[in-house]
Amino acid sequence: MQYMGEMFKLLRTSRHISLKEATGDAFSHSMLSRFENGESDITISKLLVGLSNIRTELNEFVYLANGFKPSPYAVLKQEIWEAISKKDLSSLHQLYTKELEQYHLYKKDIYFLNALMIKSQMLFLDENIKMTPDEQSFLYDYLFSVEIWGIYELQLFSDISPLLSLDVYLRYTREMLGRVDFFEELWQHRNLVHSILLNGLFKATQEKRLGIAAYFDNMINNHFFEENDTYLRIVYMIADGQHLYCKGEKELGLKQINDAIHILKTLNCDESAAYYSDSLEKWLKEVE
């Protein structure tokens, strides 16, 4: 509580805003002063008013009040990517086992869902990894029990998607689109939705399921990217190029894909360009 008040004061004074200006008519400046000094707490409604008056977004304040620390989910993902970069499958198995043990000990869904996320990333190192029927049921029960999908559900769905069949992915995507409308104007939610739709188009073209590919392509165009979503637009060029190729427009599709990869190279996005170049080579071998 003291740290939250301290961070509020730091943000307020950095903009040369007085206590009276920060509180407006919502509550007394003496109440805010006690909060800043760690002597008392304030309600969330008053905090939101105060943040608005000092021109600070809630997510900015939470990040600072949390001591500049990433979320536990972000920390776990970093551990996973470090293991993947070293091709250390045993470390991933250890992380997976640890989360399952935590789940059985504390009976909290978060640990089981973490285990599923870890398992999905094992596919990068072991293509034989699969979800068990119990894991499939757990994921289904969780996602379909949440009426409003926020950042957590969207990230979870996106991260676990490598384990999902195309038909299951399609079903979850259709459900997702009906449960994100509360947040559809928020850029972080919107970008995750776009990424999920793009992944669906890639999945469908990899399996040459043109009907499902057409669905994802239509949804992408219905939720099309803003002009400043340049990276997503480039990735869509690649996914759409694969779709064109599968529909028989091979020359046009390949040109579009190679144009997109060339743009990535021009922008010095070398890792992305290399990734999509390698993916194209593998995809062409599989699709023919």
From TrEMBL:
SUPFAM superfamilies: lambda repressor-like DNA-binding domains. InterPro entries: Cro/C1-type_HTH (IPR001387), HTH-type_regulator_Rgg (IPR053163), Lambda_DNA-bd_dom_sf (IPR010982), Transcription_activator_Rgg_C (IPR010057). Residues 100-277 form the HTH-type transcriptional regulator Rgg C-terminal domain. Keywords: DNA-binding. GO terms for molecular function: DNA binding. It holds the Pfam family Rgg_C. NCBIfam families: RGG_Cterm. PANTHER family: TRANSCRIPTIONAL REGULATOR (PTHR37038:SF12), TRANSCRIPTIONAL REGULATOR-RELATED (PTHR37038). This is DNA-binding protein. The lineage of its organism: Bacteria, Bacillati, Bacillota, Bacilli, Lactobacillales.
